[in-house]
Specification:
single chain, 160 residues, alpha+beta, four-stranded antiparallel beta sheet, 41% helix, 19% strand
Length: 160
């Protein structure tokens, strides 16, 4: 999907000011409200914009421990294990991966003991061979997309 300069400006506003109205976005960008709405609709339809909900903090919800748990799965059981992982509330993301292991999960916990309990639950899932856990000490680069959006927008502008 081609993202142009206006799309980039729209995405920047949506990221930086998520609670602003479409009318206000249009005023800030100096474009017609209909134009802005059509662009936002296209970005949603093409899968660039995938959600509009709030970003929540697991730490503020009482789960300050973050770990990445690699899960090795018995061959042929990836789908079943993936479905079982979805039933564990402390798993906030899971990906099929290459390299060491078959799945990588992002797990949050209340403390080290709770993390151990979650890992034991994973180990006991049918189809799980073993796990390897890495505990995050400090977030160095928070989840972000604005630098990527700006890079894509610059590339689109320079290819004209």
């Amino acid at each position: 999907m081609a993202v142009d300069e206006l799309d980039t400006r729209i995405l920047r506003l949506l990221i930086e000011q998520p609670r602003t109205s479409v009318r206000e976005y249009a005023r800030i960008l100096q474009v017609a409200r209909g134009t802005l709405q059509a662009r936002i609709d296209r970005l949603e339809r093409e899968g660039v914009i995938t959600g509009t909900g709030p970003h929540l903090s697991p730490a503020a919800l009482g789960h300050p421990v973050l770990a990445f748990v690699h899960v090795e799965v018995t061959q042929g059981h990836l789908d079943e294990v993936g479905e079982a992982l979805a039933a564990v509330p402390e798993i906030i993301e899971a990906f099929s991966i290459t390299g060491g292991g078959d799945l990588m999960t992002r797990v949050v916990a209340r403390d080290a003991g709770h993390l151990e309990d979650v890992i034991q639950r994973l180990i006991n899932l049918p189809g799980v061979v073993r796990t390897r856990t890495e505990v995050a000490l400090r977030e160095r680069v928070p989840y972000r997309l604005l630098p990527l959006v700006e890079s894509v927008g610059r590339a689109a502008g320079s290819s004209r």
